[in-house]
Design a protein that fits this description.
Elements (H helix, E strand, L loop, with lengths): L1 H13 L10 E7 L2 E7 L4 E3 L3 E3 L3 H8 L9 H6 L8 E7 L20 E4 L3 H12 L9 E4 L14 E7 L15 H15 L3 H4 E7 L1 H8 L35 E3 L26
Length: 284
């Protein structure tokens, strides 16, 4: 997925844009009834005729946009967007690719170049959701993972083949759930699950890092640790994103556009957010 952001950055720079990394945006500048740029945390101002926000709607409207810029009652509607994180992520570094029982082998094959969803049945998914809902241990675990042959080295002391795994049914508030939701137990349960389907997984683990919803909020600015920038429930999908009646990407603030997962039609790495719903426009 990093290739997508690199391509966007290259296209932006080709057209004269500048990319600043490690610079936090503190506010969206507002003057003459429209967005006119951004203000960085060090006080630097960047002026622009158009501002695009890839942050979630809550962070954009409630944290970056001045209160006086929002139409009446919009702030309260934004506060009601459900952004409680219901999943955690574990990044594994492996010494070899998973050898799945259904398709054995550690040489790169089609089973390694896409995502793998562990969900044997609808009943299994239902039980996994019930366990998350009531804060019980993960006896049933619905997970997705992906892997590649490209070694990486991050802040961890050991390099290996990256294998990010995500569980989409964890308690909304892991800290208040039972003690079995500690990072160590989550890691061990994920290793157990993966080893059920790829017997070599346990012995191939070199290192791992666990991200709970609170970690995702702190590290990446995702309100509530919600990776989709808002629940993908039927009433908050497609034309209901980010809000019913505010489903275009042109925000209610002239000059400001939303382009993240909280917009039509929703997240989950579809590449679709940033496109327009049929029959709508982004006129400011």
């Amino acid at each position: 997925m990093g290739s997508v952001t690199q391509a966007l950055a290259l296209a932006f720079q080709t057209h004269g844009g500048e990319v600043f990394c490690g610079k936090e945006v503190a506010a969206i500048r507002y003057a003459n009834d429209r967005a006119t740029g951004i203000v960085l945390s060090d006080g630097t101002e960047c002026l622009s005729d158009i501002v695009l926000s890839n942050a979630d709607p809550k962070r954009t409207f409630l944290g970056l946009v001045p209160k006086e810029a929002l139409p009446e009652n919009l702030a309260e509607q934004v506060r009601r967007i459900r952004t409680e994180g219901t999943g955690f992520k574990i990044n594994f570094a492996l010494s070899e690719l998973p050898s799945f029982a259904a398709m054995p082998g550690t040489a790169v094959g089609p089973q390694h170049t896409g995502g793998v969803m562990i969900a044997p049945s609808v009943d299994y998914l239902e039980r996994a959701w019930d366990e998350a809902k009531y804060g019980r241990p993960l006896a049933n675990r619905s997970a997705r993972c992906s892997s590649s042959r490209r070694p990486i080295r991050r802040s961890r002391p050991r390099a290996g083949i990256p294998c990010p795994c995500g569980v989409i049914t964890s308690p909304i508030d892991c800290a208040r759930a039972t003690s079995t939701w500690s990072e160590v137990n989550l890691r061990n349960r994920m290793i157990d699950l993966m080893t059920e389907y790829a017997p070599n997984f346990r012995r191939s683990v070199l290192a791992c890092e666990v991200f709970l919803p609170s970690d995702l909020e702190r590290e990446y600015g995702l309100t509530g640790g919600q990776i989709f920038h808002g629940e993908l429930s039927p009433d908050r999908s497609s034309g209901g994103r980010p809000l019913p009646g505010v489903s275009g990407h042109g925000a209610p603030v002239p000059g400001l556009y939303l382009c993240g997962a909280g917009t039509h039609p929703g997240g989950d790495v579809s590449g679709a957010p940033g496109t327009m719903p049929p029959g709508r426009s982004c006129a400011t």
